[in-house]
Amino acid sequence: MEKVNASSSSKGKVVGKSDKQPLYKPTVEAYDQWAPTYDTDGNFLQSLDSIMTQEMLPHLTGLLPGESMIVDLGCGTGRTTLALLRLPSIRLVGLDNSRGMLDIATARCNQTLASLPEDGRVATLYFETWDLLDQAKDVPEIAKNADAVVSTLVVEHIPLDVFFGACSRMLKRGGVLLLTNMHPDMGAETQAGFTDPVSGEKVRPVSYVHTIEKIVEEAKRWNFDVVWGPRERGVREDDLEKLGGRAEKWVGKKVWFGMILRLKKD
Q: How many angstroms separate the CA atoms of 212 and 182, rounded?
C-alpha cells in the first residue's frame, strides 16, 4: 500500500483546520490558491526539477520525429512549458486542472514567444483546462495522438493507474513519456504545499508517495518500457547557492527522480 499524505481520503476531502496540522484541500482548489505565489515562494524542488528536466530534454527530443506534438501534462504556471517553447517545429499543448495556474502560464509563455525568432520556437501553442482526476471526462481531442507527454512533479497527486491510463490515451504507439517526481525518500517526510501569505494557513493538496518500483511496475501494466533512467538526485552542498536556503536541510538526501518511458508499438 502506497502512503497517502492526507488525513482525508484520496478523493481530496477537506480536513478541518487546526493549529498544528496543515489544511488539506482538493487539488484544483489548492493549486488555484497557490497560483499567485507558486513561482516565487522559494520551493527548491521546483528549481532542481527545472535543472534536471533541462538535462533530460535532449534525451527526449532524440527519440522524436522532426515535426512532433508534445503535451505538457499538468503544466501549472508554465515552468516546464517555457523550456519546451524553444523546440522548433513542435506543436505544444499545455493541460492543467487549475484555471489560475493556466492564466499565469498563458501570459508568461505568450510574452516569451513574442521574443523568440520564428525558427527558434514552437510552431503552435495551446492551453486547455482539463482535470486528470475527473474520470468522466476523456482526454481532450487536442491532446490525442501525441508524440510525447512531459509531466513534471505531477504524478505525486495522481493514482498511478489514472495517470498511466491518461498518458496511454494521449500518446501514439511508440510515443514517449518524460516523467519526474518528488523522490519517495523526501515524500516520506514532506509533500507539496504552501503557506498562504494572507491567512498564514499551511495548505496541502492530496498527495501520494509513489515509489520508483511501483511507478515502473504500473507503467509496464500500461505497455510502457523505461528507455532512460530512472535517475535519482539528492541535494549537494554545491547546490545550495542556486536552490536557496530551504534546500539546506535536505543535503545528502534524495529528493527527486526522473525517467523516460516509451509506449510499446504493439
A: 10
